## 1
Amino acid sequence: MNAWRALLFAVLLAFATPQVQAQVGTDVAPLTFHDAAEEARFHALVSELRCVMCQNQSLADSNAQIAFDLRREVLELMREGRSDAEIKDFLVARYGEFVLYRPRMEASTWLLWLGPALLLLVGGYVVARVVRRRATARGPVPDDTTQEW
Amino acid sequence: MSEGRSNAARFLPLAIFFALALLLAAGVWLSRNPNREALPSPLIDKPAPQFTLPVLHEPGRTVTLADLRGAPFVLNVWGSWCPSCRDEHPVLTRFAETKRVRMVGFNWKDERADALRWLDQFGNPYWLVIADIEGKSAIDWGIYGAPETFLVDANGVIRWKHVGPLTDALIQGELVPALDAIDPQGRKGSR
């Protein structure tokens, strides 16, 4: 049993990579919601926002102190009667476009949004050309005496 | 099909290989900055966020952004809980000793007693320390991890920001030139 515990500890330790930037380690009381609708709206909103500290987690998933603070701020803004868009604007004004998991359609992001469709179009064009060429070039294989390999 | 065309087709895989290699090399080149995860602040060249925060050493006294107007200042975010702030401390102290600019400490989400003990133990490089226990003002400034350092000009506009510990090279290479640009007459260190 002790060996298992030691192994578990070792695994946990391996995942606890040190960070250059520090975080406060204090515990914060969990947020309380007035009703289920508020809770649902809150969870939908924070899962679309990125944690600025651990950048591959959403605000909903992150345990970083700043994520606690931002979640509390989001709930307070909701209670002030701000819309989801206003809350996102609030965070973008302070932390930049980066906090949005779904970036807005802008001059700097149109390639990001339309890139896949563009690639699909280019790929489709190439495939269509290849197919058409093969269709016209079909026939008996020519006896190629210049072939060296 | 002409001979020239099939020759070109033969080199196509090689061309694709080099194009991919170039793409990957570009990715490596773009990630050369060790601080690449630092978020660019949208607040650069914008008015600094307003705040009203207590002074760490005199909890009864509060300071607002307007109180700091008239000359540039450096705002350095730190906490006694932050190990990198301790690494940064000697660098900050060396820079503070040049008396080039007012150094304002932003004590973030800290316990007052811990913060005071930290300054006692390592020395206080700051001209003034304000305390944000709640972390509400920190959100307005877009702060997400200590240490962070801002340069604010005499009109209260944020001119420069660095996320992560300062180094002597960063101060000489970025902070001082930014300071020279906004405050040429302060260059002699008369303050």
## 2
Amino acid sequence: MVTINIDGRELKAEEGQTMLEVARENGIYIPTLCYHENLAPYGACRLCVVEVSTGGRWRMVASCLYPVEEGLKVVTNSPRVINNRRMIMELLLARCSQNEVIKKLASEMGIEQTPFKSEYLENKDCILCGLCVRACEQIVGRSAISLVNRGVNREVAPPFLEPSASCIGCGSCAYVCPTGAIKMDDKDGTRVVYARNWEKEFKLKKCKVCGNYWAPEEQLEYIRGKLNLPPDFFDVCPNCR
Amino acid sequence: MDEKVAAVIDKYNADKGQLISILQDVQSELYYLPKEALIQVSDTMGIPLSQVYSVATFFKAFSLTPRGKHLINLCLGTACHVRGASKVLEQIERSLKISRGETTADYKFTLETVNCMGCCALGPVVNIDGEYFGQMSAGKVDSILNKYS
Amino acid sequence: MRKIKSLQDLEAFRNSIAEKRKLNKPCIAICSGAGCSALGCREVIAATIKEIETQKLREKVDIKTTGCPGFCEQGPLVVVYPQNILYTHVKVEDVAEIISKTVINGEVVDRLLYTDPTTGRKFVHESEIPFYKKQKRLLLGNNSNIDPNNIEDYIALGGYSALAEVLLDRSPEQVIEEVKRSGLRGRGGGGFPAGRKWESCHNAPGEPKYVIANCDEGDPGAFMDRALTEGNPHSVLEGLIIAAYAIGSHEGYIYVRNEYPVAVENATIAIKQAEELGFLGKNILGSGFDFTVRINRGGGAFVCGESSALMASLEGKVGEPRAKYIHTVEKGLWDKPSNLNNVETLANVPLIINNGADWFNAIGTEGSKGTKIFSLVGKVNNTGLVEVPMGMTLREVICDIGGGIKDGKRFRGVQTGGPSGGVIPESMLDMPVDFDELTKAGSMMGSGGMIVMDEDTCMVDTAKYFLTFLEEESCGKCVPCREGIKRMRQILDDITEGKGEERDIELLERIAATLKDTALCGLGTTAANPVLSTLRYFRDEYEAHIKEKKCPAGVCKALIQYYIIDENCVGCRLCEKACPVEAITFMGKKKPVVLDQSKCIKCGICKDVCNLEAVGVK
């Protein structure tokens, strides 16, 4: 156990915890976009940056990744932190000028517009937080999509922008996406998982008992194979079992 | 193509850490990275195709589209820039009617830019098929391009 | 080839090489570096070999291809031994004369001697040339007489004796102490004390440990690492093996950027020859220490010069840096303790072992010890690689060694530190070359690029150039870098196109502050330096672009106009023929041509080809 100080409060923390975890446990607000408690932290959005000191200089670090240590002093709301958060949101707002989630988050921080020229504003939804990619890799284990290209051309995509053979249509990517850049629609026995530049369609399995469509056949086949279940295991949906 | 790719993978003992070296050697053999080659690398080495594709699109050295017969590399490093490399680039683009990163319609030339070849004292520098041309100027472009059939 | 198994073996081998070589045997050494290759040295080498054969001199005269001494603009370079006569701009047609006159008769071929561009004086020996006189070429000095593909040359000069000393007579802790005491700081840009890094890695728990030599040299305008790795790969290799021993690593990498094929080839050959002789592999020199090394090529990504990105690419992943709250010396390649040093840092190590830490820290300043190789390029008379003791002033480097500004133009600034650095103006030229001094001035030492700019360089365009570079090279992971650099570049685009606004400068400064504070890696945190330093020293130039819509240096296309200076034009038609859009019309002999502004695309070719200064820019 170590003791750290966040915004003047002395708090206990376990070795190996990150500053963000300790802050959240204690109800201290630090905004994040690319963080998810079930995935390894990535440190890409930089919204969670705070000021820290271990006795000497104060510096800015990403709280989702910074490990706690004895005597760590943290400030989450100094002018320096607020100014940096503001610029990061302004940059995101310039990229995703029409996205409701980004607009709302910016508004909560008191930012209604960005200082960049309107002719340069973009209309993207994806903020390249990587949550979808990490969920598909770390939790689902399929690595169907990845971050491709580099720099300003970076995007989330399946290989060659074609429907990925590895994608099982589980929709985890759509669930974790913070801005709705990946969506999932189930209709008439078909599921579509899609983003702006790519999509994949799946046939949904029909329950032999109630006749409702409930999950993509590919997803069920994947689980069945992994757990070595009999071929007809998923013919009946969970509600009817 | 299969055999060439397999031979490269074999040379590196299918070591996952050597993915970039493997892709470089495959590209040397095939002049670019065809989709089938990337799929073969992924299947043989047990690396998710999405990761192979990520790596292939991240690094500037790789091309996923067929390249022209002659590869023109123009240096846009600082020393070359200060000596007018951008004018040389514009002239090449004008003469070949393509932009950087593109290939001519007849697949004769591919034009790429590099952010420093290390020949800084001789800028601006152009490299065509491994042959270096130093002290380039916009006026010298056409006579050099005409040397290539 | 039998392996060398002990110190006695090594000394005996060195003596046998010396005996084989007759001291005064004539030798023609031709530089085969990438720079001279660009100027046709391969043809010169072939012609020399042919001529020696034709004149039946193969037994009497040695031919050697050597590494890059960094005097590229004067190439192809040929040195004739034993007289040590330097010939420049050597062409195929000159070869026969060099052999008959100099090699056989000992006479100098005047027209091939180096000519000082400012005085017109000719010099016979390299050491007399003003460019070389003030340099202290501890690292580069041997490049002109070592064949990088022949390990015997390196051994003959004392190579690998430092390794023998270390493996057979010192403990790893003693080696680390020596390097710490020397004060050697990283030469790749970070300037971190090498000894301390080695110590941290040595102490970090975990096996196996890795050592990596970084030859990714991404800074555009810098080619020190190229010359070292191409020209004297064994100096880097020896340093790397010593580092491995000190740290306790048995597996190493040399990471060479893809754009340096000659360096890759020469390092590969060097490793092979070192293996054959037993300097690599198992039980090196009978010491019981094992070490192997392999070469990996970069894929064309500047960001891979950053240590965690480099290590990611060695793991077969994209070159994305990661937060370094836990340092790579503790968790690096494959999450194991990894020590990464720039190749120039490593090349210093054998010198420190051979001559002692005290010798090394007697050179340089309080905070920066030893020598540094700089790539002095741009608008200066003598361009090339310059190795000087730390503490020499910028003025001495640019004026005494560089010979001042080319074509008698006015000095405006020198850019150091690559895209992470800044521009130093004339008023600060008496600053000593030192890690901390350069940082205080708003720039940094960086890897050693020194790009000299004159009155025809626009500082706003320079800032725009670096941002464009960084925008292309950003890995794209973090928001401030990916989005921030793009927005800064857009603002600079507007300023250079006459669309700048008053509030632009404040916005640039705001973005810069966030980049510095929140970007994930060094690429992002230093990305704003070129803008900030040019704003600091050349603000009036920004204001001219924004308020008056003018580019004082005559560079930014949208703000300039080419025009014909009627008094000087004789209607020679050179510009008319060269104009790619036929914007120039011939009006008759001895009459000035007419330039149609509506067609002009501002390519500048007319000004380039005019020999009478009849084309102006305003």
